[in-house]
Design brief:
Blueprint lengths: L1 E2 L11 H13 L5 H7 L3 E6 L8 E5 L4 H10 L2 E5 L4 H13 L4 E5 L16 E8 L3 E5 L7 E5 H9 L10 E5 L11 H13 L7 H11 L3 H4 L3 H14 L8 H12 L5 H30 L2 H25 L3
Antiparallel strand pairs: 1-6, 2-3, 4-9, 5-6, 5-9, 6-7, 7-8
Helix pairs in contact: 1-2, 2-10, 6-12, 7-12, 9-11, 10-11, 11-12
């Protein structure tokens, strides 16, 4: 049996920031979850309705693992990531650092994890692994999934090897702090500006503020788009609020990040951006509530209301990002 010592198994709201928190605290750097999300320039938006999809997906963050890459580059961390199609090599890639006393991050499909109550395929899930024995592995997942949990080694192997949207080939990673890393406080403004630039310059209409505008046009059609309106709409709303987003499709996390920043940096544009994202977070929760009501009642009027709010949100978030990139 191998257990990495001095692991603070603190489950938070979002999977990737939960895992990053575990790995960085073990290295001696303890940052809040909103700060990790913000320093990783994690906020984004995508309206995704690809071929073969049963129902559209609203995403509120950058692609899986981009947040980790962004954070490591911004803070000068040594990020070592491994991928392989070999089950044997995949296990060696996690066992070696664990045996050496270092926790490991894993990207996998949560469908195969024993402790997941909702069996849905999602290949962009991230956990921290801190131990194993002959039969099980010991993980830290989000608070809503139980924080410190265990699953079978067989289930973990299937989760890591699963193929499909957003999956990676048995991806594992470790993080090491350099001897002289830059002060994370000095990296706040570059992180905010990079996030704003990417959001405003999204290359296709499904992304950024234009993606929110597109959602405003498409969401009112969702009753006709759904195979099972009650299930599909309620699931979409649940993912927006409770699917590891921290609430309001990650806008609550970004609001809290900006709030924390205003306590460190005295800047009028920063305070304005925070106010706009506080407004946006409330409106995103209103949207998910209206989608839920539409699914429960079959009344398309609720989706029309949600679409109108999404049009407002496109403008509000565009205004917020334009202000924030002036920092």
């Amino acid at each position: 049996m191998t257990i990495v010592q001095d692991i603070e198994a603190r489950g938070t709201q979002h999977c990737e920031t939960t895992a990053l928190g575990v790995l960085l605290r073990h290295e001696g750097l303890d940052l809040s979850e909103p700060m990790l999300f913000g320093l990783g320039s994690g906020l984004s938006f995508v309206y995704w309705d690809g071929k073969g999809m049963a129902f559209p997906f609203l995403g509120g963050r950058v692609k899986p693992f981009d947040l980790t890459r962004n954070l490591a580059a911004r803070l000068g961390l040594t990020l070592r990531a491994e991928e392989t199609t070999s089950p044997r090599k995949a296990w060696e890639n996690v066992a070696a650092p664990l045996d050496a006393g270092r926790p490991v991050g894993l990207q996998l499909d949560c469908y195969h994890l024993d402790y997941f109550r909702s069996k849905v395929h999602f290949g962009g899930h991230v956990v921290a692994m801190y131990g194993y024995d002959e039969h099980d592995v010991y993980l830290v997942d989000t608070d809503q999934q139980g924080g410190a949990v265990r699953t079978s080694r067989a289930g973990l192997a299937m989760a890591r090897a699963e193929r499909g949207p957003m999956t990676a080939r048995n991806r594992s990673f470790t993080i090491t702090l350099p001897e002289h890393s830059p002060r994370w406080q000095d990296r706040i403004i570059p992180a905010i500006k990079d996030c704003a630039d990417a959001f405003l310059a999204a290359p296709i209409a499904n992304l950024g503020h234009r993606g929110i505008e597109k959602a405003g046009k498409q969401v009112p059609k969702w009753l006709a788009r759904a195979g099972d309106p009650q299930q599909d709409l309620l699931q979409a709303a649940l993912l927006m609020e409770r699917g590891g987003t921290g609430g309001a499709l990650f806008r609550a996390l970004y609001r809290d990040f900006l709030d924390e920043c205003t306590r460190l940096i005295d800047d009028g544009d920063l305070r304005a951006g925070h106010r706009l994202y506080a407004e946006a977070a409330t409106l995103w929760t209103d949207v998910s509530t209206l989608i839920t009501k539409a699914g429960e009642s079959g009344d398309a009027g609720y989706l029309e209301q949600a679409g109108a709010i999404l049009h407002d949100l496109s403008r509000i978030e565009k205004d917020a990002m334009q202000v924030l990139r002036q920092l």
